[in-house]
Amino acid sequence: MATAARTILLVLMLLVTAVPPVLTLLVQKDPIGRAWLASPQLGDVVFPLQPAWTVAGWTSGDFQRRTDRWFADVVEPRGYAIPITNQLFYVAFAKSHMYDRTIVIGREGELYERTYVAAYCNRSEAGIERALAATADAVGELHDRLSREGKLLLVLITPSKAAVLPERLPAGVCPPPPDPAAVRRRFASLLRATGISVIDGHALVTAMKAEDPLPPFPHGGTHWSRLVGARVAGTLLHEVSRLSAVDAGSIDVRNVRWDGRPQKSDRDLADLLKLFAPPFGYRVGTWEPLCQPTAGGQARTLVTIGGSFLFQVLDPIIECGLFRQVENYFYYDTMYQRWPGHHRERLDRAKMQWRRKLVETDVVILEVGEHLIGHAPHVEHFVTDALAALRTGA
């Protein structure tokens, strides 16, 4: 009996070892005819082997490291094995190993990102006043310099899902902070004291949360919903028109329904879970955009500097064609995008010529997430570089 058991176990081990490479070769040799053997892809797969073998790559170990990552991407049936394994962890332990283990599964399966949860739980006012005042002063100086040249600078504070929906965080994740909004309110107050117009996204979505049948953050998303982004875009355009005395156009949402299926950023964390049966059963708001471009708005240019919450705001602005040109500096120097045409590239901060860029720009939107207030490198770097350029005329 023991011998038979060992034989069966040995055969199973050999099968587990041998089947994946054989199956992978069959699928890749004839990807059309053998398509029924292939498991779903979990991302972009490069075949044949990349990179090519070289003596230098072999001796440095770079070839081996890349080959290891490549094999892990193409081996069959990875597209079934990983989602099924992830599903077991998700259902049995409410945990995920995806996205560098930064996805937090809250009550009723609500998804959060660890960065925002940590900022909500650990936010402290101790020692932050000086940083807030310094940032407000620098942004205020930039605002004044741009204003003298007929340019407009606004600050958009974007909300954190953990701060807006703390009631759905995992039970016992942290004691409720005494006043999680204190730092945000103080920062907005300091900015406004310098004459800067501030759009407080947290305050906007809190009002929506009280009125809408669904929360402003989708169940499986880390960003505010695409509907909320369109609403904020409308608020932003109204403020631009008010401050500049030039009608920049408008965006409105009509025929809002609350039975839509999540798409794009409304399910970004749910997608990242890579589950066999993803939790896409929740609903989101859908709407019909009402675009009202104007000649004044379409003659102007818009530059935005900030994080990923800007994308939900920029999407309807770009689709409605409200500005002649829109440029976005994602976290300042991580990625540059330009519309029309959706050009994108990685920029070298040292080569940026902000004096010339700001001369050509009519409206500047500086976005800062509330979880980054007091330590937002993209804000500090942009303001430092822009002021240096304006002070020297470079």
Task: Walk me through this protein's architecture.
Helix 6 (129-148) packs across helix 15 (377-392). The strands form three sheets. The chain has a seven-stranded mixed β-sheet, with helices on both faces. A two-stranded antiparallel ribbon has the order 1-2. It has a two-stranded antiparallel ribbon with strand order 5-6. It is 46% helix and 16% strand. It has helices at residues 2-29, 55-60, 62-74, 78-93, 114-122, 129-148, 161-164, 182-193, 201-211, 226-244, 268-272, 295-298, 309-319, 354-359, 377-392, and strands at 103-105, 111-113, 152-158, 197-200, 250-260, 284-292, 301-306, 325-330, 335-339, 343-345, 363-369. Strand 9 and strand 10 (343-345) form a beta hairpin. The mean pLDDT is 91. It has two domains: 2-76, no CATH class; 111-392, no CATH class. The N and C termini lie far apart (84 Å). The protein has 394 residues and is of the alpha/beta class. The chain contains 15 helices and eleven strands.
- How many distinct domains? 2
Biggest sheet: strands side by side, in what order? 4-3-11-7-8-9-10
SS field, number of helical segments: 15
Strand count, sense and barrel status of the largest sheet are: 7 strands, mixed
Order of helices and strands: HHHHEEHHEHHEHHEHEHEHEEEHEH
Helix content: 40-55%
Strand portion: 15-25%
Helix and strand content put the structural class at: alpha/beta
> How far is the N terminus from the C terminus?
84 Å
Overall average residue pLDDT: 91
Anisotropy-based shape: globular
Which stretches of 5+ consecutive residues score pLDDT under 50?
Answer: none
